[in-house]
Amino acid sequence: MSKLSERLFLFFLGIPLFIATILLVPHFHYIIFQIEIIFFSILAIIEMRIMLSKKMAVYSTIQMVIAGIITPLTAVCCAVFSISFRFIFFAMALSAIVILFYEFICSFSGQFEKSLERISSGFLVIYYPGFFVLFLSIMTVWEHAGILFCIFFLMVFGCDSIAWLLGILFGKGNRGFVPASPNKSLVGFAGGYAGSIGGSLAGYFLFPEVFSGPIWKMFLLAFFIATAAIIGDIAESILKRATGIKDSGSFMPGRGGILDSIDSVLLSAPVFYILCDILFGFEVL
Fold this sequence. Notes:
This protein is mainly α. The protein is built from nine helices and no strands. Helix 1 runs antiparallel to helix 6 and helix 5 crosses helix 9. The N and C termini lie far apart (45 Å).
C-alpha cells in the first residue's frame, strides 16, 4: 500500500472510528477516550525519548514514562472521578521532583557532564507531550463536550488534511520557504486556514446552542487553531531535524509515529481550551 493510500485509509476510516469513541461512549467523562489519551501519551513519551537519545543523554524508557505520564494520568483521574483539578498542579510538581530525584541517584556516579542533558530531556517530556495532552482530558467535563471535541478535531484535522491535499495538488511552485519542513507550501498553509474555518463554521451553524454569539468568534477561533496546528507540525519537524530522523516512529500507517500524528493536536488543545474559556465561557480550572 502506497503512503498516499495509507494516509487516505487513515483519514476515511481511522479518524471516524476515533471520533466515534467520543460520541458513542460518553459515560464516565468519555472513559474510552481517556484511555486512548493515556495509551497515546505513553507511546508519544517513548518516541520522544528515542528521538532525544539520538543527540543527548536521557533517562531510561521506564523512568521517562513514569515522569511523563504523571500529569496526564492525574488529569484523567480528576475528570473521570470528579476530583478537583488543582491536583494537576500537584502532579506537575511531582513530575519535576521525580526528574530531579533521578539525577540525584545518577550523581552518586560522580559524573556530571551529562546531567544538564538528562534533566533538560526529562523536563521536555513532562511538557511535551505530558502537559499539552492534559487539556484533552479536562475538556471532557464541559457541557456538550462531545460536540466540542468533534468540532475541535474537525478544525485540526481539517487544517492538516486540506493543507496536505492542496499542497500536493497546487503547491509545487511555492514550497521551500520553511527550512524545517521544505515540502510545506504557501497554498498548503492557506488551505490549512480554510479547512479550520470550515470546521468552525460547521460548529457555528450546526450547534448554535454551543457556539453562541457573533460569527467573528468562530473565525477568531479557527485562525488561532490553524496557527497552533501549523506551528505544532513545524515544531515536530524541527525536533526531527535536530535529532536526525525522518519520522518519530512507524505506528501510524502513512503518517509515521504517534508524535507525527498528534503534533498539531498537542499545541492546538491548550489554545482551544483557552479560547473556549474566553469566547464562550467554558471554564474548568
